[in-house]
Amino acid sequence: MDKVIVSSSGSTNGINVLLTLREAGIATLGIDANPDAVQMADETEKVFPANHPDFADLLKSICSVHNTRTIIPTHSKDLIFYADKWRAWQNEGFRYMVSPTSVIRTCDDKLELAQFLYRNGISHPMTYSQAPYFLLSKVPIFAKLKHGTGSVHATLVQTEDELRYYDIISKNIPIYQEYVEGPEYTVNMLSDYNGKVVGAVPIRRLVVRSGLSVLCESEYYPAVEEIARDTAEALELVGPSNVQVIVNKSTQKPVVIEVNPRFASGSLPTAILSGLNIPLLILELLQGNDIKQPSIKYGVRVVRHWSWRKIR
Fold this sequence. Notes:
With 312 residues, the protein is of the alpha+beta class. Helix content is 30%, strand content 25%. It has 9 helices and 14 strands. The strands form 3 sheets. A 6-stranded antiparallel sheet has the order 13-12-9-10-11-14. Helix 1 links the parallel strand 1 (4-7) and strand 2.
């Protein structure tokens, strides 16, 4: 097995992937633009951000020096670069999995994603882009940014004053969604190059901070898994992804609230410990191996905790 390059290796996902590969005895090279990022790789290289004009040449040079073409992208900010380069770089022998650029952009635009779900008959909260005062009769309503990550500027709006305040603090176009109350799940998944889901596990988000699960548990919930699989295959996602689902308390029906074409930052360790080892399965797919349906163990509960280390 080639040494594996893990992008954004100091990010939450980068660290989760590196720890998994280390446990499997796979040699790793971490690349990150942040010189102070925590590094868990066997070797590390500082790089430019993925949107820098010299990033591609530097990455190719690093691959040549370390004699590897195997890459696992981990951060949402890197995805467009790898997606844009995928076809040309595949012809040069590079190996990685990422969804097509158009799919990434659809998932990143919450209004466009809602329209996609509507066209494909997938249950989701009603989503509005009109001026907020139109929505006063519909409060409580959930407001979020059209393009946003985590829970930045996402809030439950219940009054006209709150709507006005949200309009002021929003840094890009806000959208407004029907408020759905109920337990929330992140379905961790892996899809092959044809967009077929090869493994999935629903994980209940028990405690969430800043958009990340800090306490979660894998749970057998066929209806939640089914809607997530249907969503991933309708979008034709490739590689790791996660679909966030809420089970409506009043109807007991699952609804899709978000899709991320990447590893799930908060719940990936829970998926791995439950039997869906997505990083290792990616390497199998990159080598052209067939994937057997993973055997999932439910009821695995994982807590995220802080650690520290001296960096200089």
